[in-house]
Amino acid sequence: MSIPSNLPLRNDLAGEEPYGAPQLDVPVCLNVNENPYPPSPAVVESIVERVRQIAPTLNRYPDREHMELRRALAHYLSKESFVDLEPEQLWAANGSNEIMLQVFQAFGGPGRTALGFAPTYSMYPEYARDTFTAWETVPRKSDFTLDVDAAVKAIAEVKPSIVLLTSPNNPTGTPASIEEVEALLAACEKADVEGAPQGAHPLLVVDEAYIEFRRPGKPSATTLIDKHPNLAVSRTMSKAFAYAGARVGYIAAQTGVIDSLRIVRMPYHLSAVTQAVALAALDHTDEQLAQVGHLRQTRDDLVQWLRAQTYKGTPLTVADTDSNFVFFGVFDDRDFIFNRLLDRGVLIRDVGPDGWLRVCMGTDEEIAEFKKAFVEVLRLAEQR
Ligand SMILES: Cc1ncc(COP(=O)(O)O)c(C=O)c1O
């Protein structure tokens, strides 16, 4: 990074680095929680066809309300989460990153605070910084589940405008139960908001980026939207839909929240090409969800396998996960494990509390490579 001092960069951005995990050209990339399986030939066909249809219209601005996409997302949620939402209760953007930035732009700002539950997704403090919103966290319990009592207390005391609950959580994989979401909602509905007019209550945003990987039978927080005007549930096509490169995220909430986001969105923020590509994937949801089932099995098998491994004579600790990644440790020198895996062409992620590492699900072949390399690295660690 080299920013000359004669540029009037915002004072609070001096010395900051762009966010992002390393993008290294290695054979086995298991570091950014992508879906390892590319879109199927049928999805590729639909993409080509849908983009072909809209290509002659690209001289015009796209539908800035992206109504066809919002209808398709509502239909998807009715099948995936058994919830009936109107298209007006959905809103899409370029990845859930952009959705979340819009949430902070609309509900954060100077004099306001966003509250999260650490360890959690490392982008949240960046949205806060970029919108001059203060960022505070309440620690999770030692098994990374939510400390509901501490959370409820903090909501009353901090009076945040945004409460961010990540479920399943990143980097730990920990799901929040629907009862925990309800407890936080109840706390929000009683709490005031510092810096907002009397009568306003915190907005609870549940980040369900990985929700499709949850165990069957667990309800999504979208099922609570009907009764809670201060609830928003953010989702993405990056993970379950194998669409990280397409950049499509969306949020579900009552129309008051959606209308608030519409105030801050850039005009025509979602290109006609992005809308067409998103619709193409939504033509094939059954097939896509079947593949998610395979990744869930891959994850459960890997958790079991990791729990049977030892590090310097002690069995590994592996966090319970409802996601497409596994958080494991505890290593006295996680850099050693990370770097020796990288030497063997396997890239994972060194995020979260010291001593822990995160690996996301790969293809069956990639997971076999990871296991082979990891056994070698554990042996090296024993010899140190
Ligand atoms: C918890 C969480 N939320 C949101 C995102 C962003 O996803 P998107 O690709 O939709 O911007 C990620 C990405 O890894 C994530 O882990």
TrEMBL record:
Residue stretches in coiled coil: none
GO function terms (MF aspect): histidinol-phosphate transaminase activity; pyridoxal phosphate binding
Start and end residues of each Aminotransferase class I/classII large domain: 30-371
Pathway it works in: Amino-acid biosynthesis; L-histidine biosynthesis; L-histidine from 5-phospho-alpha-D-ribose 1-diphosphate: step 7/9
Modified sites of kind N6-(pyridoxal phosphate)lysine: K239
Reactions accelerated catalytically: L-histidinol phosphate + 2-oxoglutarate = 3-(imidazol-4-yl)-2-oxopropyl phosphate + L-glutamate
EC number(s) from the headed UniProt entry: 2.6.1.9
UniProt entry keywords in alphabetical sequence: Amino-acid biosynthesis, Aminotransferase, Histidine biosynthesis, Pyridoxal phosphate, Transferase
Cofactor(s) listed: pyridoxal 5'-phosphate
Pfam families in the cross-refs: Aminotran_1_2 (PF00155)
UniProt cross-references to PROSITE patterns, sorted A to Z: AA_TRANSFER_CLASS_2
Record-level GO BP terms: L-histidine biosynthetic process
NCBIfam families per UniProt: PRK03317.1
Family note: Belongs to the class-II pyridoxal-phosphate-dependent aminotransferase family. Histidinol-phosphate aminotransferase subfamily.
HAMAP family referenced in this protein's UniProt entry, alphabetically: HisC_aminotrans_2
Subunit structure: Homodimer.
Name of the featured protein: Histidinol-phosphate aminotransferase
Protein source organism: Pseudoscardovia suis
